[in-house]
Amino acid sequence: MRKNSLSLLVLFLLGITTVVAQNATSILDKAATAYENSNGLTARFVIQTHSEVQKVSESFEGTIDMKGDKFVLKTPDMITWFDGTTQWSYVERNEEVNVSTPTGEELQMTNPALLLRSYKKGFTPEYKGESTAPNGKAAYDVELTPKKKGDITQVTLQIEKFTGLPAAISVIAKNGISTTIRLSKVETGINQPDSYFVFNAKDYPDAEIVDLR
């Protein structure tokens, strides 16, 4: 369940924009432009998931660093690097690093740049009105409905009205898992070097590398 939750985290980046129009397409287009011009960003997050089938819930915190089509995702028990082509996922409890080359479909869920550029092909956006974010600030709600049947049945974004920063996201999946993600902090202009998004084996000398490519 945690892996699915992490793959949904990047949908938050759809909300990074200065919202000046109550139009879902306009909001998302500006989000794409804002991300491209952000010069790298970092965010802290809390994810809460619930499986209706298994009757299991969990919550955990983490951070994500992003620049262009690259990212580093950190949670208490896993770190994932993606340099635009290759992905490395380090699982601390197993001392194992899985190396893979994500497919286009996988990247649509884990790569915000690709999702922002291609949301018009995969989702139908709809502006749902205004609400109050968890931090008490006014927000816009945008709902994304997949055009084709897949793992996700619905996504709702909550975007702060005046800052344009994402506040919360709710995701409903066909497997009965619902996910809520809340951001506590977003900073832009970080501009990490490209090497930051590449796994460095010297930093994990005891890790077993499993090449899945």
How does this model look, in words?
- This protein has a twelve-stranded mixed beta sheet.
- The protein is of the alpha+beta class and 213 residues long.
- Mean pLDDT is 79; it is low at 13-21.
- The chain is built from four helices and twelve strands; from the N terminus they run ααββββββααββββββ.
- The two termini are 23 Å apart.
- It has helices at 2-9, 24-36, 104-110, 112-122; strands at residues 41-51, 56-67, 70-75, 78-82, 87-91, 96-100, 123-132, 138-146, 152-160, 166-173, 177-188, 208-211.
- Helices cover 18% and strands 45% of the residues.
- Strand 5 and strand 6 form a beta hairpin.
Shape: globular
Q: What is the share of helical residues?
A: 10-25%
SS elements, strand count: 12
Q: Radius of gyration from the CA trace?
A: 17 Å
Separation, N- and C-terminal Cα atoms = 23 Å
What pattern of helices and strands is seen along the backbone?
Answer: HHEEEEEEHHEEEEEE
- Please state how the strands of the largest beta sheet are arranged side by side: 7-8-9-10-11-1-2-3-4-5-6-12
> Mean pLDDT, nearest integer?
79
Q: Count of helices?
A: 4
What oligomeric state best describes the polypeptide chains here? single chain
Query: Can you summarize the main beta sheet?
Result: 12 strands, mixed
Structural class: alpha+beta
Model regions low in confidence, pLDDT < 50 over at least 5 residues: 13-21
Assess the beta-strand content as a share of residues: over 45%
